[in-house]
Hints:
The complex is a heterodimer of chains A (88) and B (421). With 88 residues, chain A is an all-alpha fold. Chain A has one domain (9-86). Chain A has helices spanning 9-18, 44-58, 76-86. The longest helix of chain A is centred in the middle third of the chain and has 15 residues, at 44-58. Chain A is globular and about 35 Å long. Chain B folds into two domains: 25-123, Immunoglobulin-like; 135-410, Beta Barrel (Lipocalin), CATH 2.40.128. Chain B contains one helix and 25 strands. With 421 residues, chain B is mainly β. Chains A and B meet through helix 1, helix 2 and helix 3 of A and strand 1, strand 2, strand 12, strand 13 and strand 16 of B.
Amino acid sequence: MLAKPNLSPDFCVHVVVSATPFPSRYKPGTPDTTKLFDLGVVDDVQRAHFINGVKSGIFPWLIDDSLVASSRDTTVQASAASVMTNAK
Amino acid sequence: MQSKLAVLVLSLALVPQMGAEDAFKLTTVVPGRSTPVVLYVFYSGPLPASATSYNLKSDWKAEWQTRQTVPPTIVNIDQVDVDAANKSFTLHLSGNLPKLSDMLTVSWTVLLLSDQIPFTTVTSTPAHKTCTAYLCPPDSTPTPDLSFSGSFTAAGGSNPLYQFEVKGGLILPRIRGIPGYPALNMQIEINQNPKPPIHRTRFDPDSITGGFALTKYINTGGPLSGMRFQAELPEGEFSRKDPSSNIIAAGIATLDFKPLLSPNASFPLYFTLYPFFGMEMGRNLSRPKVVEMIPVDLSNYRGIVRGYMGADAKFALATAERKSDVFSITGTYRVRIPAINEPFLETIHQVTTFAMTTKARHWVESDVAYTIPSWKYLSISGTYQYGELPPFFELVDHKFTIGLKLQAVQATKPAGYKLVQ
Lengths: 88, 421
């Protein structure tokens, strides 16, 4: 059985950024200003893949799709905080 | 004139540019899930120049309470760690703490009271949606889940001509044991072909498709964000113009390419392309004997097997806050290639011909839209359509429509899932 990773800001920001289409566009130190749109989450299709990526990234933690802050105007920080708060 | 209009639209969209960087403030507090007990506190804006304004544990206060009416319980802060890369503090706690299992269910308030920076505080609050209705205005999901668009034509010596298009895709709750999300989808085209003068105002559905679908997303890699698999369980294709109707099941795979994004963050342009391919199979349920006053023999028209492919593309400019699109151009292409002869009705220069053929049936639709920022339920749009839609594949011949579109998104569906493209 996999050990559950610690849901720290560092881990969750990394998971959120990695789940976007363009993680290389993210500049460290900008989670409060970088929006998911700027990393490629521009529409519902990309959003669905983003949520899938987040769910895979935090496994064996689980999270309901609707509780991942993932609208394209959401900041990386807000999305990471939603993962930290709602993962079970 | 058109280029001036485009420049004006782009200029209006870019007026509220990215503002100056916000001042330092605490934004979110999230309790840790394990021991030793910690609170993670996110902040925004630049860290104060002096480290002593935020890393002294005596400047921090943290308290928790179960209900607003109960006095809060103050806890000790033993250590403060700063993670500048992720803009967060970690507060190590001790003292009168709630049970570990209750860390997330109680409300936490954190204060930073330094004499070197303005007072800042943050409270953990449960997540909430800005719109709690079943249908909400399109906001951060620019493509509506339900749209109703129409136009009205008046001409001398003719009754009014109304033309409508309804598109919908409503996601249902997940069913245990079934992969993907179930959904109901529909597309209705009404009065697409009549031209003035007409002598009787009526609503004549040219094409109605509706049915039940299962959608599953998977992540891949490389140039793709992932793939989408959609099983459309038997759905109906109907037309009221004649008694023709089909029942069809389809399997579709879509390649979801990563979007092209403007490298300039202050100019949020993007382009998406989603090609798909699949098959449709089914059978004809009812056949007319006369179509457009032409006697037809459709006795051999029973089985239906078609290759089905196409693509959806979108080029759009987002607002400065990225919530919605100010201006967009979307393109849809569909081609159905029958393996077995199917009816094909063509009217060119007012001469209608009918054939049973495996000729490919194309459908092209392009929309240009400008959304009114103050009331996003409404957008001004121009639409171009050309091609043939099931069940009878009657030609819609280069049709242009300029009109208003009422649109909404379904607030209760799982995030990100969408049937209407």
